[in-house]
Design goal:
Shape: elongated
Distance between the termini: 37 Å
Strand content: over 45%
Number of helices: 0
Radius of gyration: 19 Å
Largest sheet: 9 strands, antiparallel
Order of helices and strands: EEEEEEEEEEEEE
Structural class: mainly beta
Helix content: under 10%
């Protein structure tokens, strides 16, 4: 396999995570079966993340991910799970070409809470979020689509591991 990646990250981070800037990754590659040549395929992947602060302490996080695979033994991509389409099923929709868009507004709810016993310890920020995720897949002439919207509450982020609860509404009608 031969892969080439271009990565750029100029996002500005705080203790709550990224608050401004852009993160960008473009990767392309080709896998060659040297024995028979029937398992050859190419893959292209793009991930763009944009962070803005439209209001004080409100973060707008946008993510777009596109991927495609081609060749005799093209790679199938699956969308689902907590990172790409906030649903419990990890393989909800699939195809040889996929596109997913995510938009989230993050609002800190409790920040700077300190426990004094047994010694002072600042708890991670407790935040709320409104979000929508949309995904499309294509495999030849077959197409699938899925959308999720909802709100969430989470503890942590930045240097802390995030614990998150989401309440979602799902739809195949776009």
């Amino acid at each position: 396999s031969n892969f080439l990646s271009l990565v750029r990250d100029d996002a500005r981070w705080t203790w709550d995570g990224p608050v401004a800037g852009t993160r960008f990754n473009v990767t392309g590659g080709y896998t060659r079966d040297l024995t028979t040549g029937i398992a050859d395929y190419g893959t292209a992947f793009t991930d763009l993340r944009v962070y803005r602060q439209p209001l004080k302490r409100v973060i707008s996080a946008t993510r777009a991910v596109a991927q495609t695979s081609f060749g005799e033994d093209a790679q199938r991509f699956y969308i689902g799970g907590p990172l790409r389409l906030r649903v419990p099923e990890r393989r909800l929709i699939s195809g040889l070409q996929t596109l997913s868009l995510q938009q989230e507004l993050r609002v800190p709810r409790v920040r700077g809470l300190v426990l004094a016993i047994p010694s002072p310890w600042m708890l991670p920020t407790i935040s709320g979020a409104l979000f929508t995720d949309v995904a499309w897949t294509r495999d030849g002439s077959a197409r699938e689509q899925y959308a999720v919207g909802g709100f969430g509450a989470y503890l942590g982020g930045g240097p802390y591991p995030a614990i998150r609860w989401n309440w979602i509404w799902e739809s195949r009608d776009l």
